[in-house]
Amino acid sequence: MSASPIQPAGPTGTPGAAAKSARVVWLYESHKKVYPRSVKGWFASWRWVMVWFTQLLFYGLPWLSWNGRPAVLFDLGARRFYLFDLILYPQDFIYLTGLLILSAYGLFFFTAVGGRLWCGYACPQTVYTEIFLWVEHKFEGERGARMKLDAGPWTAEKLWRKGGKHAAWLAIALWTGFTFVGYFTPIRTLWAEAFTLDFGPWEWFWVLFYGLATYGNAGFMREQVCKYMCPYARFQSAMFDHDTLIVSYDQQRGEPRGKHGRDADKAKLNVGDCIDCGLCVQVCPTGIDIRDGLQYECIACTACIDACNGVMDKMRTPRGLIRYATQNAMALDRHQPATLLRRIARPRVLVYGAVLVLISGAFVFSLMQRSPLKVDVVRDRTSLARIVEDGRIENVYRLQLMNASAEPQRYRLQVAGLPGAVVADHGPLALAPAEARWFVLQVQLPPEAAQGLGSGAHPVQFHLVNEPGSSAPADVTEKSTFIVPR
């Protein structure tokens, strides 16, 4: 049910003249399907370059082998993340935090410079909508043909066109869900299970959930995700200013709009370069009119620029009626590249860029200095301290060693901090690639050394170094305490 339109009243309380031009706004208006028209041009080519790049990366990485295992695998069961030669454990959560901070500052930086570049070229919603629209064009034709097909009755031709389109959409969506799960379960194992439908319950859930989410978002919801569900559209304005590059319509050049021929005298007709063809609206995936100015629904896909440039070429008029420009440049009618570069190099962008470079450098340096060995010392609570043969004091410890390298390692254990303390009957500690193991060891202290220390807790250090010739040298020290009984 829709609400009644509100009309402004005149001086006497009756609808006045302003009511004639008042815009009716329905509170519960049904969604009108957007039929984007296909477009060719320089920016459209770049969008497809990004589609190919992102999808080859997404679909290809799980199949890439590295040292006999998947190159990229998030093994939640074993609590290990494999990124080529890099092996991360839950204790490396700090690197995920750093990656999120890098992503956030990268988003701030590129948004301050070029607006919604992420949305227009690399966002999964944009990429999969572009793919699904391409499939729709192949089955149902161009914009006019699709509108006619939807408005017409159900026939055999409409059934096979619609059915073929949805079958292709489902195939792409399910393959996307399958690939997504392939980042958490080795995809070759998953592929073998697919022939017998022998997936585990969680594998079934995520293949179907991610696949159906892709099918629904890219096939049906499309621009609604960008307009109503994505939070980025709402807070992007906080990162925009009058020197941010955005998709802009040159009103000084284009207005007043009017249809005219290629060789018409525009001054005599009192019209601008815009011939009001409406192509910029027809190609827009969110269905907006860029000539109305900057709008939060604009995802900066630049389809309107390609469409308008094509019209300008046919009208033998210079390109750029719709173009990337800053609001200040548009106001001053200065859009030369050198001027734009000077406007882009402003304090906000420089600060974002400097912070991004510093965090990136610190992140890479931390990864390079990261030790391939992780150690955790836990005292054996069942036996804090005991006296063994020859009166020696013995404490029992449990050491968890995690090999964060892709090669087998052997470590020597040394005890420091307690004069005379030795590790009883323990040889080198061996670990397989990416293996985590618990070792139980006893540290013994001669009675004369214990008498010199006195009873109570005393600091002790466990020092682990690689055996000679190891491919991933490690030198790790972990602190604990040694208990001397009364």
TrEMBL record:
* Record InterPro entries: 4Fe4S_Fe-S-bd, 4Fe4S_Fe_S_CS, Cyt_c_oxidase_cbb3_FixG, Electron_Trans/Redox, FixG_C, Ig-like_fold
Q: Give the lineage.
A: Bacteria, Pseudomonadati, Pseudomonadota, Betaproteobacteria, Burkholderiales
Native species of this protein? Aquincola tertiaricarbonis
Protein name per Swiss-Prot or TrEMBL: Cytochrome c oxidase accessory protein CcoG
Indicate whether Membrane appears among the record's keywords: yes
NCBIfam families reported for this sequence: ccoG_rdxA_fixG
Transmembrane regions: 46-66, 93-113, 167-184, 204-221, 349-368
- Listed Pfam families: Fer4_18 (PF13746), Fer4_5 (PF12801), FixG_C (PF11614)
Q: Where is the 4Fe-4S ferredoxin-type domain?
A: 265-293
